[in-house]
Amino acid sequence: MRPGRLLLWAFTVFCLLGASGALAAEPPRQLNLKEALRLAAKANPTLKISRLEELIADQEVVRARSGYLPHVRTDVNYTIYDNPIKVEVGGVQTPLGAAPNVTASFPMTNRSFWSSRTAVEQTLYDFGATSSRYQAAVLGKSATRLDTAQVRDNVFLTVCQGYFRVLRAEKLVTVAEQEAARLRDHLQDARNLYDFGLVTYNDVLQAEVALSDARQRLITAKNDVVNLKAALNKVMGQPIQTPLALTEEKELAVSAGELARESEAALKQRSDLKAAQNRLEQGKKAITQAQSGYYPRLYAQAGHSYQKNDSWLHDHQYFAILGIQWSLFSGFDTRAQVRQAKERLEQLRLREQDLAEQVRLDVQTAHLALKETAERLQVTEKAVSQGEENLRLNEERYKEQVGTATEVIDAQTLLTRARVNFFNARYDHQMAKAQLLWAVGAINELLEDKKP
Q1: Structural contact between residues 43 and 258, judged by C-beta atoms closer than 8 angstroms
Q2: pLDDT for the residue numbered 22
Q3: N or C, fewer C-beta in 10 Å, the chain?
């Protein structure tokens, strides 16, 4: 290979390695809980879909309102007959000497002609069909917006849970690293004592097995962090490979109050319950709209018609109509629509009642979870300090040859379990706070400057 090509190849490889190193060294994004919620509020796919439902509901209101406005229709066509339309007239007087009262035919249309008709029609009264449809559409629009608010709250709860799961997983990585480091030290102590002939090789084997288990847990813990960060990125609407550096959240200050008061607040604030109540009112309007099929529709119509006809004196005609439309029998279709509307209303009523009970259950579950995790946090915090002291004593006893290697490994296992329990309790407590805020319909307040 020529020296010039070799240099060019080396330079290309160097640039590629430098670019990949720069990409690999991309600093993680510093993020707190409020910023995570803002990202989710802007970019979460489920929330975007729900907002599109709002736009669809807006157009449904426009469609329903069109019943109050006049409808304009224009028809233009070209007609060809094989024979022009004619009319026969009897008793025609003929010239003198011919047969009297001869029947004659006269053309009514041309054989081919252009025609057009433009009409403006306005409904004057339809016994509540238009008004009930419009009111139902307005209620549906309001319910859809409340649905979006509930979707937002659900997304916020998922963000909070994902955020604290990531923090917990990172702490568990630290716990696993500490366990592996202590077991490495213990392995070194066991080897030193074995070299001096103070212990058997079984102590070294025990320490090596325990260290291997700790390293496996560390690998799993690191993998959990990667997966949980990817899941959090997804719910925030970010690329799942976006590096994150989450800060500890200390603004989530929520305490368990009286259960009855929290339940009452939830029944007033939960968006899904408000949406169910709006749909209940919407169902009542649907009954009125269906019942209007029993009654006539009064309307007015005015317009212009044109037909090219050599037999008519006037090709252009202006007209006005005051009319009534009444479906006297529709094959029991109207009656079936009314019954359907009433059954749907009963269905909506049952759903609203069931949802109210579910809201109470959500509040109670979150209330109890908050109290439980607070108590666990106190217990496990004390257990960690006790586990650390227990491990220290057993390590000293082992070095002084008054304890066994098994006691040291057991003490390390107890300490690791205590630390895991502590961090589980800490972040379960944070998630219980978020769950309580969600249950009472106040989790959106986390985006506000004031504390909830």
Answers
A1: no
A2: 39
A3: N
What is the per-residue pLDDT for 110? 86
- Decide: 189 and 211 in contact? Cβ < 8 Å: no
| Residue reference for tokens 């009654």 | 295
Q: Cβ(280)–Cβ(345) under 8 Å?
A: yes
Mean pLDDT, rounded, for 357-369: 95
Q: Are 184 and 204 in contact (CB under 8 A)?
A: no
**Residue 330, phi then psi, degrees to nearest 5:** -120, 25
Query: DSSP code of 249?
Result: P
Structure tokens at 270: 């939960």
Cα–Cα distance for residue pair 271/150, rounded to 1 Å: 5
**Paired residues of 123 in beta bridges:** 299
Domain ranges across the chain: 29-76+126-447
Angle ∠(121,328,341) on CA atoms, nearest 5: 85
Residue 326 backbone dihedrals phi, psi, to 5 degrees: -145, 120
pLDDT digits over 49-93, tens only?
Answer: 999 999 999 999 999 999 999 999 999 999 998 888 887 776 655
Look over the chain and give the mean of its residue pLDDT values, rounded to a whole number: 88
- Name the amino acid, one letter, at 268: K
pLDDT in the model for residue 5? 55
- 196 near 252, Cβ under 8 Å? no
Residues 215, 221: Cα–Cα separation, whole Å: 10
Measure the CA angle with vertex 265, ends 262 and 267; round to 5°. 110
Those residues whose C-beta lies under 8 Å from the C-beta of residue 32, and which sit 6 or more positions away, are 246, 247, 249
pLDDT at 449: 55
Q: Tell me the whole-structure pTM to 2 decimals.
A: 0.84
Question: In CATH, which superfamily holds the domain spanning 29-76+126-447?
Answer: Outer membrane efflux proteins (OEP) (1.20.1600.10)
CA distance 302 to 287: 32
How does pLDDT run across 311-321, given as a tens digit for each residue?
778 889 999 99
Cβ atoms of residues 149 and 271 within 8 Å: yes
DSSP state of 196: T
The two most distant CA atoms of the chain are separated, in Å, by 157
> pLDDT tens-digit profile of 106-119?
788 888 989 999 99
Strands 86-92 and 102-107: antiparallel
User: Where are the alpha helices (H) located in 244-270, listed in sequence order?
Assistant: 259-269
Helix, strand, coil percentages for the chain (3-state, nearest 5): 65, 15, 20
Backbone phi and psi for residue 121, each to the nearest 5 degrees, phi listed first: -120, 135
